[in-house]
Structure formats: structure tokens, C-alpha cells
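A reminder before we start the practical. When you read a complex entry, don't treat the lines as separate problems. The point of joint prediction is that each chain is placed relative to the others, so the output describes one connected object in space. Small molecules and nucleic acid strands, if listed, are placed in the same frame. In the example below there are two entries. Take a minute to note the order of the lines before looking further.
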Amino acid sequence: MIKMNQTEPRTLAGFMELLPNEQILFEQMKQTIENTYQKFGFLPLDTPIIELSEVLLAKAGGETEKQIYRFNKGETDLSLRFDLTVPLSKYVAKNYGNLSFPFRRYQVGKVYRGERTQKGRFREFYQCDIDVIGDGELDIINDAELPSIIYTIFKELGFDNFTICINNRKILNGLFESLGQKENSVEILRVIDKIDKIGKEAVIEELTKLKVEKTEIETIMNFIAIDGTSDEKIEKLENLGIENEVYAKGVEELKQVVKNIRLFGVPDNNFKVDLTIARGLDYYTGTVYETFLNDYREVGSVCSGGRYENLAEYYTDKKLPGVGISIGLTRLFYKLNELNLIKAEQKSVSQVLIIPMLEDLEQPIKLATELRKLGVNTEVYLNDKKLKAKFKYADKLKIPYVVVIGENEIATNMANIKNMETGEEKKVKLEASEICKNV
Amino acid sequence: MIKMNQTEPRTLAGFMELLPNEQILFEQMKQTIENTYQKFGFLPLDTPIIELSEVLLAKAGGETEKQIYRFNKGETDLSLRFDLTVPLSKYVAKNYGNLSFPFRRYQVGKVYRGERTQKGRFREFYQCDIDVIGDGELDIINDAELPSIIYTIFKELGFDNFTICINNRKILNGLFESLGQKENSVEILRVIDKIDKIGKEAVIEELTKLKVEKTEIETIMNFIAIDGTSDEKIEKLENLGIENEVYAKGVEELKQVVKNIRLFGVPDNNFKVDLTIARGLDYYTGTVYETFLNDYREVGSVCSGGRYENLAEYYTDKKLPGVGISIGLTRLFYKLNELNLIKAEQKSVSQVLIIPMLEDLEQPIKLATELRKLGVNTEVYLNDKKLKAKFKYADKLKIPYVVVIGENEIATNMANIKNMETGEEKKVKLEASEICKNV
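Here is the predicted structure of the whole assembly.
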């Protein structure tokens, strides 16, 4: 009941706010991603959430600009960041002289987009990005390292059956260029993408209507018919008879990436060349990635990214090619949680709850301090409640072990460690090192 | 040089944006604080940065409201959070039925205040908060646990000479109540606070002008003359002859807190009763804390907090007493960094940089993968540069160990680990486990 002088406590639609048990799972996913980025030596970055609109929107336009949280504070026109890439561009352009290249950075932070609110869509959400930025140039081998980082993360998150799909934007661009159909490429792609629905013949018919010539249609149909293993696809691309520099470069890059991905230890089970992905994104100019959980395709791509020719052209003349990936953590968490797929090692923060059942708290508190020094997260239940209520607290917080300390435990210097999941109790010496061994 | 179609890449004044080497230090401080909060079993919380103005400003007013980042998105009146306490109040009121009490939560996040920009003042800054919220009541012993968490954090951050100052709001409130000077308390305090500047006699004179009676002035002067150890101060407070319930309760609480702080392992060197602190904050109703680095008093309090009677009265009728502390991390980092006082264990993300000097990268990449599995953050220098440039990169990133792998290293299965700080090299077998042992 809200009284006259009270406000109803509510959270904005499209803004995730979790209960503690779920927040613990979220934090573990975030930590896994961050730890993996660090394992590969990426440097942390933390840019402001608010930027000058003029700076943040130097490039933006259209759909994106409409979604921006933009406002004035005093005379200043401000916006909330809508991704982590634009702030990175600004940062690298601004600090160019103080950075070492290749500049490898990770950033995990909230971004804001005023999308139409609907289930599973968020207006405030975490992005977890890494990018490798070269000064002038950046070897193609970097494009092969990133999939190995995606691989490591999703293995760590407990998944086996996922596929990192890889393509190269230059292939399709070069194909259309070679056919003299650069201008019509969007329309042609729209038709091609309907093939599963309308069938091969109907696609040919529609392409004919678009005034694509017969030999060109043949090439296109041969292209979209390409199948097989990643290596077979590359071989077929090479033998398609397309003479175009951009196309050839794209195929060569894709070949390099596939070869090197294996060096980085990604099994063939977990990646494949997929010539259909990331067709729509103009931002990328070379390698592109999308990642799918094969048993849950409906989740969509869980990690996407690619290569771009020039990170910061809106801020600087320096040519800064890069390659990066991004995980939309908030949406990913929401979906996985909904599907009950989050395999977290720990369901609680505390590993041990010490329940004192005596006046003098000296021993229980000392024990907790010792346990913490041994690296065990430990809470002492400090409030005066019945034993039953204290156990209920441990249960609700999913704390795995409870140690009750009363007069008897002090007198005998022995205590029971109760495993809250199995109900088993084990009697041990009332010493931190002994308890530590048993939790 | 910025061209016509380019925007100058710049960051708003009052918004901290660090270079990688500093960001690494910042992240370690943040991690130390978070880890310590977790060690004591506090649950993570992550609330939105944007809230409905009506909800966020249910209580606010005056100075705070002027500093708020407030704006409309469509028809909705929104504000950015200016602390983590109001969102906590909302959260607890909203989720009351789903929380276990005492509810112990930590939150580390950015908050926003449009303060006048000046050196060392930030408009976007991290707060690192913990609070313990009781349902209806909360034992005083919780007030003694928090200083032990402050103590643990600043020890972990490498400080020894710091003091957690403790007071209780009820003491001064009760004193003024007993003197019948509740209404004049602000003015009387203003006079008292000048004692170091103007001297005892002048204070008495000014109090007389305020029409405080002679016996009352005597009590006040006795009160502010209280000195000695924490225990002596408490004894003197008890013997001041003030008969007032609130005063007596305050002294008793303070006594309890001091007694129990010792149980929690805080040495007498690192805390003291200080009757002068937190006089201005109306928010707190009992115990109050401020923490000072004694060699750097100019930094101000590095961790403050206290006890409040009712967390969420603007949202709910439930009585929710609590006690909490907050570290203003951004400002603290800024000040410590300026004073060169940040004692970070690691100056780089990567522990090892592998420098391949051959065509075939299989071995270097495999080695890196193995090292990562052993928990060693490892980067492979992937771009084609001269050896000197690669070493310079390791140097600038402060990576402590470098392993060069060329044809010779592969042939002999031996490699040198170079310690970048000392310049020493050590020849070991070219195996992850061997390298791991030596870094």
C-alpha cells in the first residue's frame, strides 16, 4: 500500500534489475567474459556514459539517432553512449600518441538505446567488447585470434554445441562488382534471401525481372549453392571463375582466417564458413563473425563482430584498421536464464555461514576472519533470531555450508559443518584450516 | 589536425577517462573493494543508472536536486542516479517480499552529479557501497562489523596508517535536547567548530551572545574538551552528568560498537572515537564513520557512512533500519594517483608476452593457449614488426616477462624468459609448465 506522501517504488520498463540470486549468476557470466579477455592480454578501458552529442553523433544517423538518449544540461548538448565502439574511436583518436599499437582493449559497460520496449528487449544493456586496433595496418592473423576468444568464453560458460560462423564482406562485394551489379546488390540480396521460402526457380524468375542477365544469374545461383565443409566452400569459391580483385582478396583472407583459427585451437566442430552471415552490416569491410548456440538458434547470434578498415575517420586522419567482437550480455543473460541454461559454479556469494548461538561472539567472529584470510567468503549471522530462522536465511541465500557455534562447540573445540544441499553433517575441529578443507 | 568533416575527439570536463596503465590500477582498486565486500558475504546489486524522476527524487531537494541530470525521453521525466542509496531504497521497498533480511548488498557503480567542475571534482564517479538492512530492527553489532570491512579494504590497498573515526549522532542530539537547545543546535555547532581558530574564551563569549545559559555553556565546554583514548572518551561521556535518554542511548551504542570492533579484529591503532565527525549529516541517526589516511589528511574522508533509522520511508510503510558505508572510488583514485600512492600488484594485464620470430605460428600460439590454461594471462605479439619494436611494445605495456620464439628455440626446445624489469634472462624448456614456474 502506497500512502499519500509515498511514491510507488518502480523500475523503468526495458531496464533490467535482478533479484540477488539472479544477480549472482549475472556477475559470474560477466566475470567469465572479463577474465577471458584478460587472459588474452586485452587492456581495460572505461569511458564515460555521457558524451558531447557532437562527438558521439559525429557519424551516427537514421535509426540509431532516433534511439539516442539526448538532452541538455545547462547549455551543453549531451548524449548517452549507444555502443562502445564510438567511444573507442574517440578515445583512440584523442590518445593516439599515448597508446601502443596494436591497441588491444576490452570494455564491459552499459549502453543506452530507446528501443520500443518489449519482452527481452532492453534500453539499458551491457556490451562486452574487445577490439584490436592497428596503426596504419593490422595483420589478418588477428582476425583468427578473436574466434578463439569467443570459443574460450562459450566453453567457459558451459556450452559445447555452438558454432562461430565466419564470412568475409569482400566476397559478396567483389561478386557484385564483377557482375556489374554493385548498385542493385541490396535488391538482389533481398531476393536471394527468400530462396528457402520460394525455391530456386522463383528466385531465378525474380532476378530476371530485376534485369540481371542469364550468365550473371547463373554465377549467383552457383555462389549460393556453395556448400560442404569450410575448406570445400573455400575451394568452390576459388573455382567459381570470378575474376575480381576484391573477391579474390576476400577469399584469400577467409582462407587465411580458417587456416589460422585451427592454430588457435578452435575445433572444426565449433566454427564454419557461412557465406550467408552479416550481409546487412555496412560497417564491416572484411572478416565477419556471428555465433550461434545450435540447440537454441532462436536466441540469435550471441557474439558478433568483424573487421573494419578505419576506426576513427570522423575524428582523425590516422588510418586505424581494426577487428572486434561484442557480446550483448544483458540480452544473452535474459535469454539463457529464461531457458535455464546458466551453468554457474556458485549460487551464493558466501561459501560458509557461521551461526553463533551464544552471547560472546569472539570465537565465531575470529573464525570468520581466519576463513576469509584463507580465501573463503564467510558471513557471520549477526542478528538475534531463532536457530530455525538462521538456517532458513542460509537456505534462501543458497549458502552451501553452515557452521553452528554454541557453548558446546567452544567447550569441545569441535563443530559440525552442514552441507545445505545434501543435509550431511561432518564433525571437524573448530579451526579455520579444518573448515576450509571441508567446504 | 581536425578536418572540415571531422569532429575534435574530446571528453567532457569532470568525466574521468584514463590511459590504459592507469586504468589497470583503477581496476585493481575496484576489484580489491569488490572482493572484500564479497569476502564478508555481501550480495551484488546492479540497478539502472536511469530512473523515473518521480521515484528518484521522492525525497531529494535543495542542493542535490539542482545537480541532477534530469531530462525527458518522449513524455517520460527521467533522472540519472546521484547516489546508490536511493536506488537501494527503491529496490528494497519494491522487492521486500523476495529478499532475505538482514539484506546485505554491495553495489559498485557510476553516479552523476552536475557539480561545478574543478580539479579533482567529478560529475561521473564510482561509488562502492555496502549496506545491511534489517526488517523492523537491526542489531547494533552490525555497526561494528562495517569498520572491520573498511579496515580490511585499506590494508589490502596497502595502507597502514589510517584511522576509522567513529561517533554517534544521538550523543550530540541528546546533549542539545538535554540543554533545551535543539532549535539552536546548528548555530551552536557553528560556533563550537571555530574553537581552534578563535580560542575557548571567544567561543564562550559567542555562545553567551546566542543566549545560551552559563551552566549550559559549561556542559558544552566540558563536552568539547573530552579527550583521551576511545575508552576514556566513553567514560567521560558517561560521567558528564547529562540526563537524557537519547544521549544515554548514543553513549551506550558507541560503547557497544567500540567493544565489538575489537572482536572484529580492528586494532586500536586504526580506529578511534571522534566526537567531532559527521556533525552535519541529517541522514544518519546513530553510528557514523569517517576514515582518514593520517599522512594525507588533505584527501578528506576516504570512506564514510553510518546508521539510519528507516531506509525507504518514501516508498513503503515497512520499517527498514540500516547501516552502510560508501567509498567514492573515482575521487579516491584520483587523489591517490596524484600522490603516487597506488600500490598495485600488477602493472599490466598480460604476465607474459610471447614474441614469435618465425613464419609458422603454431608453436607460439599453442604455448600461449597452454599458459592461459595454467592461469597465466598471455599475449602473442601477432603483427609483423622488427624484434626491437616488439620489445618496445612489451616495455610500454609494462608486461613483466617476454619469451622470444624463433627457429632456434623450436629446434632446441629451449627458450629464454626475459624479466623486463631486471633485464635478466633465464633459459628454460619451451613448455608452458616450465614457463609458468618462472613468471
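Discuss with your neighbour: The two ends of chain A are 43 Å apart (CA to CA). What might explain this?
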